[in-house]
Amino acid sequence: MDIRFSADRPQDADVLVIPVGEGGADAGALGIAQGAMVAGAAKSARFEGKAGQSFSTFAEEDGSAVRVLLVGTGKDGFDKAGGAISAQLLTSGAKHASLKADGLSAEQAAEIAYGAKLRSWRIDTYRTQLKDHEKPSLNALTLVGAPDGTEDRWTRLDAIAEGVAFTRELVSEPANIIYPESFVERARAKMEPLGVTLRVLDEPEMEKLGMNALLGVSMGSEKPGRLLALEYMGGKDGEKPIVFVGKGVTFDTGGISLKAPQGMEDMKWDMGGAGAVAGAMTAIAGRKAKANVIGICGLVENMPDGKAQRPGDVVTSMSGQTIEVINTDAEGRLVLCDALHWAQETYDPEYIVDLATLTGAMLISLGHEQAGLFSNDDGLADKLTAAGKTSGDPLWRLPLGKAYDKLLDSPIADMKNVGPRSAGSITAAQFLQRFIHDGVKWAHLDIAGMAWADKDSATAAKGATGFGVRLLDRLIADNFEG
Ligand code: BES
Ligand code: MN
Ligand code: ZN
Question: Residue 421 CA: which ligand 1 atom is closest?
Fold first, then answer.
């Protein structure tokens, strides 16, 4: 959807959108001839201007009917109000919406456009039989009378929305389309034009480096694995980069510890961590952030096969630590441990944050409301928690500790890759912490419950959410730029 700016209402606009704050519509403030009637109708339909609420009607203007949509902004829900525009109008037949943006601040006006763009995303690539009335009709939103500064703010939010859209695309694509090599090529096409440098390791290169934990997962697949680094150096020369690392299991069958068939198709989104990292890098580079940021994606497919690794196999990770692979379905941590080690060796970061759809246990503890946060540093945990609140990608911190760590001790190797059933998300985090170097501030985000949604939200239709993009962008914007 195209976002435009204008001083006057465009001639061809076929719907008039009016933002309304908490308390409901005020007849005089609607700016239309029949304001009193529309405000009364909205009130009787229980429209109170709550964030994301909407009321649709028609009013008369110069002898003809004009379609009117009131959207609630609540106290500070301008993105949600924007989301309501797309939710209500995207396939409504309306083509061009005109938003009454005078009376808003630049920030508020831009947030409405942002929400509208976020909520308008959908993937129709494989729908060949859509009826005309099912196809999106709305292709433009014009902000009329927005104050100075709105366009600048929009440029920034537009880049972030692009990042969210890229993550949703990667996460939504099926695993026969997005696998390690094709993930890299999509990332290249998207990010090279933004000034991001790609560094790609193939399997022989990873073998030389001793990444046997990651490669062990990849062994059962016909699709070769990749380690992808996205380098964006928008900050000061010589300043240590912030490093993001994402789990990119492009499909997780469980391997020889095969998953049950019911719902296995969901495991196409087991690359949601890597998808979030790629989207965040798109956002950060797209808005020309003044920071040095590296995004690393550990990309493999976890398949059962004659060549696949077996339960009980012992692998030596790049760090030299050995791992007894008790369960080949606990593969994310095997991918991440080598990616994390390589990231620290290669980029010497002070801060490292990994994102992964790591454990089903995360859905049991936090459901689909917040992602789990684990960290060895209170300062970083606080920064992330704060970014989670302001970005709308919320996090809840869970504990780490020696007693949990001990649950990973193995009778034959340095550690096993799974602990007991209880505290499954915590022991997974403990496993990763064993690969964090002394002095590095690290956080792990288990986004298993957040990468995909079975129901619509204010700014996303059901499906891939793009969780993590706005969070990581905020983390950088609020703490690491200038
Ligand atoms: N990708 C899964 C975790 C997952 C499950 C994410 C459901 C989203 C929804 C992960 O690789 C996995 O299989 N984890 C196992 C670990 C267990 C074997 C210790 C799990 O959670 O069951
Ligand atoms: Mn698994
Ligand atoms: Zn997995």
Answer: 19
Mutate to test the pocket of ligand 1, among 217, 265, 329 (most ligand atoms within 8 A of CB): 329
CATH of region 2-144, choose from 3.40.220.10, 3.20.190.10, 3.30.470.20, 3.10.450.50: 3.40.220.10
Could you give the maximum distance between any two Cα atoms of the chain, in Å?
A: 84
Helix (H) or strand (E) holding 115: helix 106-120
User: Annotated active-site positions, please?
Assistant: 259, 333
Q: Separation of 257 CA from ligand 2 center, angstroms?
A: 9
Rounded CA separation 215/218 (Å): 5
Say which residues have a Cβ less than 8 Å from residue 64's Cβ, sequence separation at least 6: none
Question: Where are the extended beta strands (E) located within 222-306?
Answer: 226-233, 242-252, 292-302
pTM to 2 decimal places: 0.98
Task: Report, at the CATH architecture level, how domain 159-479 is classified.
Answer: 3-Layer(aba) Sandwich (3.40)
Ligand 1 binding residues, C-beta < 6 A = 252, 270, 327, 329-332, 357-361, 418, 424, 448
Query: Cβ(224)–Cβ(179) under 8 Å?
Result: no
Separation of CA 358 and ligand 1 centre (Å):
6
Cα separation of the two ends of the chain: 33
Looking at ligand 1, which residue's alpha carbon is closest to its atom 18? 330
Side chain identity at residue 379, one-letter code = G
Atom of ligand 1 nearest to the CA of 424: 19
The predicted-structure confidence for 43-98, as pLDDT tens digits, reads as follows 999 999 999 999 999 999 989 999 999 999 999 999 999 999 999 999 999 999 99
What is d(CA 157, CA 113) in angstroms, rounded to the nearest whole number? 9
